[in-house]
Amino acid sequence: MVTQGSHQDAYLAGLNMRTNVMGAAHVERSVGQVSEFCRPAQELVTEYAWGEVWCRPGLDRKTRSMLNIAMLTALNRSQELAGHIRGAVNNGVTETEIQETLLQAMIYCGAPAALESFRVAERSLTEIQEEAP
């Protein structure tokens, strides 16, 4: 499916979505403080992943967050997972839903990957609770 609009439109929509989901501080680290070498990768992710995919109407943000948690567990990408745990909480995913998503991933993706994801999720959730007013 080809969407209407320009690359700039998709980038700006993606930047807005990414900021809403991941938080301004995360986006500033990822996009604002990126090296010239890595800039094209961040721009591509912002335009396509966040602008073209996350902005689609077919799934809500909460569902997309739970899918990302499961997929990042399957790929054993703990650094990305930590950020997406925060994003999931921002999107209304509860601690119980995160736990259930990780249990589902454990059965289908393997215990070692899921156990690492449980540790990452617990650290992220603790940090979020400690930051709350």
Question: Can you offer a commentary on this structure?
Answer:
The chain has 133 residues and is mainly α. Helix content is 78%, strand content 0%. It folds into 2 domains: 58 residues, no CATH class; 75 residues, Up-down Bundle (AhpD-like), CATH 1.20.1290. The chain contains 7 helices and no strands. The protein is globular.
Q: Short description, anyone?
A:
The protein has 133 residues and is mainly α.
CATH architecture of the largest domain: Up-down Bundle
Structural class: mainly alpha
What is the count of β-strands? 0
Q: Quick one: CATH superfamily of the largest domain? A: AhpD-like
By CATH, the topology of the largest domain is: AhpD-like
**Biggest sheet layout:** none
Q: Quick one: CATH class of the largest domain?
A: Mainly Alpha
- Kindly state the percentage of residues in helix: over 70%
Low-confidence region ranges:
none
Pattern of helices and strands = HHHHHHH
Count structural domains.
Answer: 2
DSSP helix count?
A: 7
Question: Which properties best describe this structure?
Answer:
133 residues, mainly alpha, AhpD-like, 2 domains, globular
Secondary-structure map with pairings?
Elements: H1 7-22, H2 24-32, H3 39-53, H4 61-75, H5 78-90, H6 95-109, H7 111-131
